[in-house]
Structures are given as C-alpha cells and as structure tokens.
Design goal:
alpha+beta; 11 helices; 49% helix
Length: 382
C-alpha cells in the first residue's frame, strides 16, 4: 500500500503505532478468533486504551478530536489483518457518528466515552428478515407509552449483534405515515432493556470471527430519552450518514484488493513449476499487471473521494460508484489471486482462501451493489 496524499508525519507515526499494536494483539490470535466465531471484548478495550476507537470523538467526551483521515488508516490496517474486524469500523465510523451528530448533550455524556474506551460496543439494526434494501418498509414498531416506547419486531444480519450493548434500531414510530419513510425513527436500545433478546449467532460463509446475529424485540421498553434526534426524521438521518458508511466499505474493499495482490506477488515469485518460478510465466505476469493496474486506479479514485469527504462535500454519487466498483473489483481480485495460487489457494492455511470467502459479502452489505447502481442512475437523471 502506498501512502495517501493527505498523510503527514503524524499519520505515518499513527499508522506505525497501530500496525505494531495489531501485529502483537490481533495477528497471532486471529485464526483462533475465526474458530471461536468471535472477537473477544477485551480486544475492543485494548483498541480503546490505545485511542483506536472513534478517534474523531471530541476531547470533552474522551476522544482525540481527529478527522476522518485517521479513521481511514485504522480501517486499512484492520482490513490487512482480516475482514472479520469490519465490526470495529462499523462501531467507530458508522454508529458512533449518529450519536455525535444527532444526539442530545445528555446522550453524548452518557454514551460517547464508553464508545471510545470499548466499554460500549455498538451495532446498527436496519435489516429485517423480510426487508433489506427496502428500508421504508420495515415492520419493527415503536409505540409511545408514557415516558417509554414499546418496541416490537425482529432484525437480522446484525454486525456486532452478539457483543453490542448499544444498538441503534431503525423503527416505525408512525406506521401510517405517507410517504412511508416519514414514519421512521432511530432509537438507541440498551442491551439490558426488558423485552430485548438476541437470537443465534449466524453461521456465515466468511467473516467467521465477526459476530452477526438476529435480534428480537418483544414489548421491549425503551426510555423516550433514547430517541436519537427527532421522531420521524430517522430516514433523513440514515440518508445523511450513508455516504460515510459506503466510503468505509469502499476503503476496506480497496485494502483487501491491495493485500491480495501483495500476497500473490510474493507467492508466485517463490513457487516453482516446470523448473522456473510461476511468476515468470507470461500468463502470471499479465494477470498481475492487470490486477495491479486495477488496484492503482481504484486507489486514485478513492483518495480523491476521501479528500472530498473530509472537506464536507456531497459525493453520494461518486461514493456509490466507489462502493460498487471497489467491492466488485475485490471479488474479481480474490478469484484471480486464488487461481494464481494453484491448489494451495484452496487450502485454509493460505490467507487467500479466507479472503476468497470474506470478500463477496462487501458487495451486499451497506446497500447492495445493485442499489448503488440505482442511486448512480437516478442521480444521472435516469
């Protein structure tokens, strides 16, 4: 991985410290975490101690007050270790910003410092068994009852679903609203709320160490002060924050592609067949030249988007392009790189096998790539 244009000496030092930390605290245990189907909560707390969780949170709430460029470095370095660490990026750069942007002073005081230390782990619950991309049609309801909401419904495919103790739940506070999205609100549900329970930890093709779960709300009582922002504005808040969510996924996709090309390059140089290195065959050289070019082009596009995003520009169309293009590219890179590893690529002890399993879902979560194309086309006036 090259460095980004925006990286200063501070960024380099930050990356070096983080990489060293991950080499010591994550890399040696990652295989075990994959087998356990879980990243231990104490790893989250170690990340927090080092200032690697939500570093953008303002200092008054225990954060470092850094901009998104530091999150980029964290996302890349976590991805280098493995995609199952995606839940950390989700916590830091997707869920916590809702509290920062729309939360009351009391909510910030109550939750943010724990999010920074890793004592609070967060999740966002949008998807339901019958509703994924079609967010306006969710069925989970929150009915006002005095100073509580009574929440009923079910969510699925929830990243951090087992570990999370703060869950940002997308609910219908007005099921009769027209248009439908006007009835959507965001509620922060604390895991000890009566009526809240977790279903099974879902068994996925890849991302084995990442805890994904079903969540159940059965007459779940949530204090009215846990409403994030205003009632009925939930859909608007989600739309405002999806730019960063999709950028997070694009960054991870790019980092995964770079990692796969690097490991494959190393492998083909060392591996011999017919008396010479596999890397000396024309097919191998052409394939890796093509992959390296795709990765380089992806990085340049991503870099410009990160700079625009930090500058506060509205880049929804381009981010949708990046999310779809870079995750599709990562799938293609995984496929080609596994092939270049030959039979060994299919063995679990080679990292490319795990990459091959972990990569495809990025084209599905945070809005499917088909939804990305729909957004692009709509913004082109089609």
């Amino acid at each position: 991985m090259g460095k980004y244009r925006f990286e200063t000496e501070e960024h380099e030092l930050f990356r070096k410290t983080l990489r060293k930390f991950l080499q010591k605290e994550a890399e040696p245990y990652y295989e075990q975490w994959e087998e356990d189907r879980m990243i231990p909560a104490d790893f989250w707390r170690k990340m927090g101690e080092m200032g690697f969780l939500s570093p953008h949170v303002e200092e008054e709430y225990g954060g470092l007050g850094l901009d998104f460029s530091y999150s980029v470095i964290i996302l890349e370095e976590l991805e280098r270790i493995g995609t199952s660490l995606i839940g950390i990026g989700l916590h830091s750069d997707i869920v916590v910003p809702y509290i920062e942007s729309y939360g009351t002073e009391d909510q910030k005081q109550k939750w943010l410092s724990g999010c920074v230390t890793g004592d609070h782990i967060t999740a966002v619950a949008m998807t339901e068994p019958g509703t994924g991309s079609d967010l306006a049609n969710i069925k989970t309801t929150a009915t006002r009852d005095g100073d509580h909401y009574i929440v009923n419904g079910q969510k699925t495919f929830i990243t951090n679903g087992i570990l999370a103790d703060l869950i940002l739940v997308v609910v219908k506070t007005d099921p009769d609203a027209q248009p439908k999205h006007k009835g959507i609100s965001l509620l922060m549900v604390e895991a000890d709320s009566p009526g809240f329970s977790r279903g099974r930890k879902l068994n996925k093709v890849g991302l084995h160490a990442q805890d994904t779960a079903e969540l159940y709300f059965e007459d779940c009582r949530v204090p009215v002060e846990n409403l994030i922002g205003e009632e009925g504005k939930g859909f608007k808040y989600l739309m405002e924050k999806l730019q960063q969510e999709r950028l997070v996924v694009a960054i991870s996709g790019q980092a995964a592609s770079e990692d796969m090309v690097d490991m494959t390059l190393e492998y083909v140089k060392e591996r011999n067949a017919f008396g010479k290195s596999v890397g000396s065959f024309q097919n191998t050289r052409f394939k890796l030249a093509e992959l390296a070019t795709q990765v380089e082009l992806g990085r340049s596009f991503l870099e410009s988007l990160i700079e625009d995003h930090i500058a506060g520009k509205d880049i929804v169309t381009k981010v949708s392009m990046a999310k779809y293009w870079l995750t599709d590219t990562a799938k293609q890179v995984a496929n080609e790189c596994m092939q270049l590893h030959g039979g060994y690529g299919y063995m679990e002890e080679y990292k490319i096998a795990r990459r091959y399993r972990d990569t495809p879902v990025a084209a599905i979560y945070a809005g499917t790539n088909e939804i990305m194309k729909t957004i692009i086309a709509k913004n082109m006036g089609l």
